[in-house]
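Pilot study result, target chain (771 residues):
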Amino acid sequence: MKKTTGKIELAAPAGGWGQLVAAINAGADSVYLGYKKFGARAYAENFDMGQLKKAVNLAHNSNIKVYLTLNTLVKNNEIKEIINFLSIYTRICSDGIIIQDYGIYKLIRELFKSIPVHASTQLNIHNIYSLKLLNRLGFKRTVLAREMTLSEIKNLTGKKLMEIEVFGHGSQCYSYSGSCYFSSFIGGRSGNRGRCTQPCRMKYKLLKKDEDKCIYVIADGSYLLSKSDLCLLDLIPEIIKTGVDALKIEGRMKSPEYVGIVTKIYRKYIDLYYSDPLNYKVDESDIYKLTQIFSRELGPGYFKEMYPPDIISPKKSGSIGNFLGRVYGINNESSGNKKVKFIYMKSRWKINSGDILEIWTRSGNTRINVKDFELLGDKDKHYKYKIKVDSARRISEKDRVFKYFDIKVNDEARSLLKYDSGKLNTKALLSTGGQDVREETVAENYLNKFFPGNDKTAAEKNQDKLTITTCIYDHKYIESAIQNGADHVIYNDFKELVKDNGIESSIIKELEKYSNSKYDKISIGTPHILYDSDFKSIEKNVLNLLEHGIKNYKISNPALLELFNEIGSKNNNTIGIYLGSDFNLFNTLSFIFFNDLINENNFLKGIEFSPELNLEEISKIKSDAINFYKGIQKPGFSIYGHGYFRIMSSRYKIEFLNGNSTDSQFYIEDIKDYRFRIASDYNDNMMIFNSRNICTLFDLEKIKTSGINNIILDSRFYNKKDFESIIKNYREAVKMFEEYGVEKYKFFTSKLEDDRLFKNYSKGHLLRGVE
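Predicted structure:
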């Protein structure tokens, strides 16, 4: 089906050949699909090179664009294969490539300049400064974060910086995309690498710690993190009016039938709006089909409000089908040795032979294959049925009945799975070949430039002293952190940073207590989530800080790269920037990209590697990257060394979970009895932290060998006395290791093995890494 000029683009998922055909037949304007590797849906069917050629050929002959999803974080040892793959793929299709990794952005811009680059939702773009950055870098389109209201989206589309795409239907992640490490920390499978195990769809208990430090259950066994599915049919007119360029259907892991039905319905209503906008109305039968083909509870996501309290579906995490009605009568009859049961129910929806019903009973759910049934009445489209049931479960009156499978909806979906083989240009397929990826010289030449094959290890090059950085959230910890051995303090007072005149009243007042000689030891931390409303004050406050001589900042949101670039280009004072782990720096190319970008008008003081890298991978990046550093001094190469690491962030309030204030300490507990702390950020976003604290005190030798020269200690959840003890012991351990050798270091740390602050810890991914 050809796209009508001027209409919003409808982008459909193609996890495999069946989904591709269904999307084309149902009226998609574009499809997004992945290679067998390097896509954010590693468990989808996906395509090998020969299949990609066939898929692109079919789509293009149907006048449909194809966007390649190359949207995972990439390791150094995978870059060669990506270049080889792209060398072939870009001769087949040049519609666009969706990326998450800035290292992949770098190689595409340098080797495949004519290919449009789209920013994946994994880049978590949700403000105007991030959009300005992508515009400056030459991105053609961005897929916005799902956590945005219509008003916030309109503010971005109105700037006309690039094409804007939003998700319109399908599953929603609990966490901001690109900021979720839950799956990797509990099982080693990274969502940022397309291998998410979906821990947010599991059951959890909600626990509360009272004033006496007693922990008790306040919610038992609910799907506390399972978001409802997104459905924006009712909002299509408003979305189109915002100026959004493309509406995206989620679902590369979904069935061809799902893709066909959902795409067909959204095609219908997009066309309906353009043909008759004043009489736009959604037929409830189409909502029925969307619910039936697969969905959890449906809702508008964040489009109507910033913090929707009902966005979580705590009762069930899978597809629920359509609610038909309740059992109003039961009839048991004997037939030989077998008990035959009839149920009576009323419904506003029809039942057909071949349907599957699911009855939610007190003893569990039971399914019924509908074969023998009788329509007892039909009045005002309300139907009474007598249905034959063979079930060992006890069914009671008032039990709820759901349509698990609808034969007619399925038949409609199956009708969309046939394709016209005449649209495949066999000659074109043969001309581009059908083989898989092969090595090409372009990869060798490019890699020799950035990966020169150093003969020295990172350890041999790393002559720097191992330093200690502390993350502080309370100004009372600053002086004691420095006194107890911290080389660097990152002060995170986010509420004041985004508050009008907040800097004058708190941060600057606090920092003026210290001499100018200590200013270089103190950096200002910034939030990883920043909406446009936050920038009303943040620029003013940063300029005020700079005037007071505070020139170092740790940043965790791409918007601040652009803001600080603008500030740096206008001021003589150069800003020192520490790059936080939220940038997911995963390979040498991404380091070189950020190094070049930041040092245009400021200078890169340090980076914190992705928490999903192991020490061997870090060592390789450090060894290669140091050859390309352009700053005025060597950067600090940091890892998160001690504390409770944030593994999720969500635009959701803790009070929605418990109905009370957030003054108490809350946890969620999984089926293995692991407890994860939860807390609120400065903007009421809910954060979830790993069940065990990370500790690297006993691995300093391995850390130093990898080339790391800075360890970050996080004070969150520690009282002042305990955190001082943590700093002292790390300081002493570093001293023992660097001044007196490994044996004395090991003897010193062995005495701390039973200390409660260093027991029952996790090493994160430093030794294992992720898939």
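One observation from the pilot: The chain is about 35% helix and 25% strand. A full batch analysis is planned for the follow-on phase.
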